[in-house]
Amino acid sequence: MAVTRTFSIIKPDATRRNLTGAVTKMLEDAGLRVVASKRIRMTREQAEGFYAVHKERPFFGELVEFMMSGPVVVQVLEGVDAVKRNRDVMGATNPADADEGTIRKTFAESIEANTVHGSDSDENAKIEIDFFFNEDEIVG
């Protein structure tokens, strides 16, 4: 398998509880390497743009408000089959359905406040990485 990149967000529910290091450790222990990371507070424009794919869904407004509610940590992760590896360590979107030892099972408060976001495909990873990072910010 090839070394690839994926995108990750440590969400406001996790940064509020000071879990950035614990989440990052789980990602690194799963064989992913952080090659770019920054703590930001999403603007409305960023949150609406990033989650535009969900614009017609009833939860869109709440999602945008949640993602603006506190700092987030956006990261570029690198590893063998990075998208799959990241999704495996994140666990199911609903923490009640997530496997033991996954980030969401360990830390998520609810299906909405589920600690992390991760790209769902290599194509989306590139789009999401480019949304938040310039190439010179990624230092692998």
Structure report:
- The protein has 140 residues and is of the alpha+beta class.
- The chain has one domain (3-42, 72-137): Nucleoside diphosphate kinase-like domain (Alpha-Beta Plaits), CATH 3.30.70.
- The chain contains 7 helices and 4 strands; from the N terminus they run βααβααβααβα.
- It has a 4-stranded antiparallel β-sheet with strand order 2-3-1-4, sandwiched between helices.
- The protein starts with a strand and ends in an 8-residue tail after the last helix.
- InterPro entries: NDK-like_dom, NDK-like_dom_sf, Nucleoside_diP_kinase.
Give a summary of the structure in a few sentences.
With 140 residues, the chain is α+β, with helices and mostly antiparallel strands. It has helices at 12-16, 20-29, 44-50, 60-68, 82-90, 103-107, 122-132, and strands spanning 3-10, 33-40, 72-80, 116-118.
Blueprint of the fold:
Blueprint: E1 3-10, H1 12-16, H2 20-29, E2 33-40, H3 44-50, H4 60-68, E3 72-80, H5 82-90, H6 103-107, E4 116-118, H7 122-132
Active site: 117
Family: Belongs to the NDK family.
Subcellular location: Cytoplasm
Fraction of residues in H or I helices: 40-55%
**Tell me about the biggest sheet?**
4 strands, antiparallel
CATH class group: Alpha Beta
Termini Cα gap:
18 Å
CATH topology name, in short, is Alpha-Beta Plaits
Class based on secondary structure composition and strand pairing: alpha+beta
Low-confidence stretches: none
Physical arrangement of strands within the biggest beta sheet: 2-3-1-4
Rg, rounded, reads: 14 Å
CATH H-level superfamily: Nucleoside diphosphate kinase-like domain
Number of separate helices? 7
Dominant shape: globular
Q: What's the overall average pLDDT, rounded?
A: 97
CATH architecture descriptor name: 2-Layer Sandwich
Number of strands: 4
